């Protein structure tokens, strides 16, 4: 039985049903011929910084879109997002005294795992769900929701444009130290795209050249599936989202498959349990991992375990829940003698009203007025500032 299973190719969940496999093949050949989007040395630098964060000598602040839009890949919008990331990081450092490793959910965050493959419109029409701009478009029409391989080329081009803006900005900022540069991370969901962009690194290995930091989502982190195999095959710093259903056995397997004792910072576990689960579940996980927990950069995602639906039917999140999860995260790690390595937030650079300040606001049946996210609700700059300030206090 086991032998038979080993011969079968590993499964990959959350992959689109592309409109044309012939076109997909052409697109992938074209991607394979392109120069890397990011340098292997920058990825290695980030691994070192994440290692510092794991030891408590720095703190990773990762912020940005749930689902990045192609239309945002213009210098003005990219700079507005980057300025917001660095504002949060500067405020964090001022309040905590810890250097911040600055990372966007940017320049490639174009693919989304979804809880259902279809969406039913109010008139009963059933459409394929929006899976991110690299796959289809959010407008509720059959044409927009068709998974077009040509979108992978657009994803690559828009990621490239965005990264050029980040790089120009970093180079133009006299006085910024290396630790104040802007790193780019995204969920490595579309395996054909990610695989097509794998390139040789400087050490005789291979790295994913689509972004500095690549993470595997909570829905695709099965140790015997292809996403984890992909993460194991590249030298980038990688992350895995850990939700409340993750078993300690699976997490231990992930640490052994993806961690590297010679490269602290190679593996981040991005915990997203929800405010009510974080204390008991993270404590149990740390207990089960024992000494192995120290080899990991522990990052808190206080967003994805705290999604609620408001009276108007919109997905939202309460700032108090976000803060409560961060508090539970920090105290569970401290109780085990470990240091929190970072925070991953979904943020907007403009004053959106997608997350709410108090749980009472969830009852309202009036839709939140400025709701612009293509996927999950993001913190406004003001809300993100509060969350970061509270995190700085806890450290
Ligand atoms: C996300 O980060 O947008 C996401 C889908 O997270 P998770 O895999 O933790 O649900
Ligand atoms: Mn999200």
Protein topology:
Layout: H1 2-7, H2 21-32, H3 40-54, E1 59-64, H4 75-96, E2 100-105, E3 118-120, E4 126-128, H5 150-172, E5 182-187, H6 191-196, E6 198-200, E7 206-208, E8 213-216, H7 226-233, E9 238-242, H8 248-258, E10 267-271, H9 278-289, E11 297-300, E12 308-309, E13 315-316, H10 319-335, E14 342-346, H11 381-394
The chain binds phosphoenolpyruvate and manganese (II) ion.
What does this 3D model show about the protein?
Helix content is 37%, strand content 14%. With 395 residues, the protein is an alpha/beta fold. The protein has an eight-stranded parallel β-barrel with strand order 1-2-5-8-9-10-11-14, surrounded by six helices. Helix 2 (21-32) runs parallel beside helix 5 (150-172), helix 4 runs parallel beside helix 11 (381-394) and helix 9 (278-289) packs parallel to helix 10. It is globular. The model has no long low-confidence stretch (mean pLDDT 96). The structure holds phosphoenolpyruvate (PEP) and manganese (II) ion. Phosphoenolpyruvate binds at residues 66, 113, 217-219, 241, 272, 304, 376. Manganese (II) ion binds next to loops.
**Count of helices?**
11
Main beta-sheet annotation: 8 strands, parallel, barrel
Strand neighbour order, sheet with most strands: 1-2-5-8-9-10-11-14
What is the string of SSEs from the N terminus onward? HHHEHEEEHEHEEEHEHEHEEEHEH
**Which distinct ligands sit in these coordinates?**
phosphoenolpyruvate, manganese (II) ion
In percent, how much strand structure appears in the residues? 5-15%
Number of strands: 14
- Average pLDDT number: 96
Rounded radius of gyration (Å) = 20 Å
Roughly what percent helix?
25-40%
Distance between the termini: 50 Å
Q: List the quaternary state of the chains.
A: single chain
What overall geometry do the principal axes of the alpha carbons give? globular
**Poorly predicted runs:** none
User: Strand pairing plus helix content: what structural class?
Assistant: alpha/beta
Keywords: Amino-acid biosynthesis, Aromatic amino acid biosynthesis, Transferase
Protein name: Phospho-2-dehydro-3-deoxyheptonate aldolase
Pathway: Metabolic intermediate biosynthesis; chorismate biosynthesis; chorismate from D-erythrose 4-phosphate and phosphoenolpyruvate: step 1/7
Family: Belongs to the class-II DAHP synthase family.
